[in-house]
Design a protein that fits this description.
The protein is α+β, with helices and mostly antiparallel strands. It has three domains: 2-164 and 217-312, Rossmann fold, CATH 3.40.50; 349-534, Galactose-binding domain-like (Jelly Rolls, Sandwich); 558-671. The chain has eleven helices and 33 strands. The protein is globular. 52% of the residues are buried.
Length: 675
């Protein structure tokens, strides 16, 4: 099947294929390629995702893949096993079998008469993860990778855990979204009469991922699988790494760039102000001509074009300036800087000590203890863990959060202070419970008092020595822990102040400890903040960084309509809090006359003084409709806890028209493991 798409430098066409794997499973692929590729073969660029290419990513795919094809590549999009129109069942994220399938797909692509035999792999988020995971398998035809918004360590930096803390904000909501998405059927116009058989099998066999994620509360083999930090040297294909300061996956850029470089892998990294959206469309900007950057990378590694793709600095990063904190930003002020080595050598540091009077100073001050009992209401202004640039995503002014924490604030800065790297907090404290956590935040406080979040971190204190073998906290005994904050690039302006905030609670980011916890924080030199300073006009300054504007690209005909919301309600008697985050979207593809979309709502409940009142509820609906064919998935999930266990439930109803064809009702209790 072929269809001509919008004219580009080379005329293109679309082909659809079934890629049969060695076990008989068929994966659905759509490829946009030059019309003359049969006589003039081209390299293939693979994007390998579970997000349903016929509907879920169709509008975005219509811009990127034709662009690559029009510049002499085959842009290939494949539905992962058990998703979209492909056969099989998706049993979890990033399984070894997913990577096995990808290696077979790459070999298949390299053998096609329209392919030159060279394959690149690219993607963001799931596609950024599996590009690196597959590269570590070293399929012979894979010659280059572009990975955006990825992780190298599935336990340390993803939606499940942070610092050994269970993430309440994203884990179950992401699992709920994937359960609803995986419950949708293949498109009958593509798979034919088998669509209902495949659909019913999915409904019966696709698991709720949260159950497996929550069963593995330590960094065990479950998380090591697919974590390329276990062996960076396994990757041999050249890699372009993409990250965003507003995204949830900034820390892996730091580690992966250092790890790949140390292993001798050709690589470069680009870190902009972006959220979890491609750099050519992201809020905040500035947006860049990212597709042109991709072409430079592909041309160099897949076509042997001498274009200087490897001549520039190892890292190009957007050094952010202060902007007034708000829940949505279209642009972040700053400038591009560069580093020729990573990690930086002989990094100058600025050490600031937490003092008992609430100040942060280069002078240690007298030894004192500051006492703090965490409020269950702290954390409501944390913003999204992984912002997509929606109007409600970013952390607002942190003054309310600072007031619910122990805050240490410097005096007004006499001169500009830039940081690039991971700030480190050395914290000496004691606690009155065997299970406790700390939440740390670094903020830029403007002269008017507004507080902008720069970096943060969580640490489950039972994981203070190991994420694989946690141990109870010795009650009342002094502890000294070192906690790296998030990777950051920021310039503190003269007259601004630096603030370090410490709390024993941070809901719904961190699932609360089983009992209220009293922290005693030692000051006077025992607790300190170390900043990775950077000279504003050092040798690493970028002189010639011109990405150009985003180019006009083809677009799918149809529409995308939607809205998002975030509301916070607090009742005074009793002191209860409900945070609600929601989104609704409706799309249409004129070419296939398909309408599809979703409605999602997450609610996070808690009561002051009662950490066991924490509860997450997610409900949503996914739908597909064409003519008189109507599919609807209704979904409800929840997560609660006692002192000893978590309870996870999910209810799913699938409808064809007005007829319910499937129903699932399931509740699972999972023991708490030192969290």
């Amino acid at each position: 099947m072929t269809a001509t798409v919008q004219r580009l430098p080379r005329e293109t066409e679309v082909r659809e294929d079934w890629i049969e794997l060695s076990d008989g499973c068929r994966l659905y692929a759509r490829t946009v390629l030059p019309r003359d590729a049969a006589t003039d073969p081209v390299p293939a660029v693979l994007e390998y995702l579970p997000y349903r290419l016929s509907d879920g990513t169709a509008h975005r795919d219509a811009t990127q893949h034709p662009y690559f094809a029009g510049h002499g590549y085959a842009g290939v999009r494949v539905d992962i096993r058990g998703t979209g129109n492909s056969d099989g069942i998706l049993l979890d994220e990033y399984l070894a079998s997913e990577q096995d399938d990808a290696c077979e797909v790459i070999a298949w692509l390299a053998e096609q008469p329209w392919c030159s035999g060279r394959v690149g792999m690219y993607g963001k988020s799931w596609g950024g993860f599996n590009g690196l995971q597959v590269a570590a398998r070293r399929p012979p035809a894979l010659h280059a990778v572009i990975s955006a918004y990825f992780t190298d360590d599935r336990y340390a930096d993803d939606v499940h855990y942070m610092g050994g803390c269970v993430l309440g904000v994203e884990g179950i909501s992401w699992a709920s979204y994937m359960l609803g998405l995986n419950a949708l059927p293949p498109d009958p116009e593509i798979v034919g009469e088998r669509w209902r058989e495949l659909w019913l099998e999915r409904l019966e066999r696709t698991p709720f991922f949260q159950e497996a994620w929550l069963t593995h509360q330590r960094r065990d083999d479950f998380w090591r699988q697919g974590s390329i930090c276990e062996d960076f040297a396994a990757v041999r294909a050249p890699v372009l790494l993409i990250g965003g300061w507003a995204d949830g996956y900034t820390n892996p850029v730091d580690r992966t760039l250092a790890g790949l470089t140390g292993a001798g892998v050709p690589c470069r990294a680009l870190l902009g102000p972006w959220s979890h959206a491609w750099p050519e469309v992201s809020d905040p900007g500035p947006r860049i001509g990212f597709l042109q950057e991709c072409l430079r990378w592909w041309d160099h590694w897949l076509r042997d074009v001498r274009n200087g793709a490897m001549d520039g600095p190892l890292l190009r990063a957007w050094m952010q300036e202060y902007d007034p904190p708000r829940a949505h930003m279209t642009d972040r002020r700053g400038r591009w800087v560069s580093e020729g080595r990573w990690p930086r050598e002989e990094v100058p540091v600025q050490v600031m000590y937490a003092r008992g009077d609430g100040t942060l100073s280069e002078e240690r001050g007298p030894a004192r203890e500051v006492e703090h009992v965490g409020s269950e209401l702290a954390g409501a202004d944390a913003g999204a863990w992984c912002p997509y640039g929606e109007p409600v995503d970013f952390p607002p002014d942190q003054r309310a959060e600072d007031g619910l924490a122990v805050s240490f604030t410097s005096g007004p800065l006499a001169e500009r202070t830039e940081i690039l790297g991971r700030p480190i907090v050395r914290l000496q404290l004691s606690v009155d419970r065997p299970q406790a956590l700390v939440a740390l935040r670094l903020c830029d406080v403007a002269p008017d008092g507004s507080s902008l979040l720069i970096a943060r971190a969580l640490l489950n204190l039972t994981h203070r020595d190991s994420h694989t073998e946690p141990t109870p906290v010795p009650v009342g005994a002094p502890l000294s822990v070192e906690v790296p904050l998030d990777f950051a690039g920021h310039a503190f302006a003269p007259g601004h102040r630096i603030r370090l905030a410490v709390s024993g609670t941070y809901w719904p980011y961190a699932w609360p400890s089983p009992q209220p916890v009293r922290l005693r924080i030692a000051t006077g030199g025992a607790t300190r903040l170390t900043l990775p300073a950077r000279e504003p006009d050092g040798d690493g300054e970028a002189i010639d960084v011109d990405f150009g504007p985003p180019e006009e690209t083809p677009a799918a005909s149809g529409f995308v309509r939607g809205r998002t919301w975030r509301t916070l309600r607090r009742d005074l008697a009793p002191q209860t809090q409900t945070l609600e985050v929601g989104a609704c979207e409706r799309n249409r593809l004129d070419r296939t006359e398909l309408e599809f979309g979703e409605h999602r709502r997450r609610r996070y409940f808690i009561t002051e003084g009662d950490p066991l009142s924490a509860r997450v509820e997610c409900d949503g609906e996914h739908f597909l409709t064409r003519g008189d064919w109507h599919i609807r998935i209704a979904l409800r999930t929840s997560m609660t806890s006692t002192a000893d266990s978590f309870t996870v439930t999910h209810d799913l109803d699938a409808y064809e028209g007005d007829t319910r064809v499937h129903a699932t009702r399931r509740s699972v209790e999972i023991p708490r493991d030192q969290v």
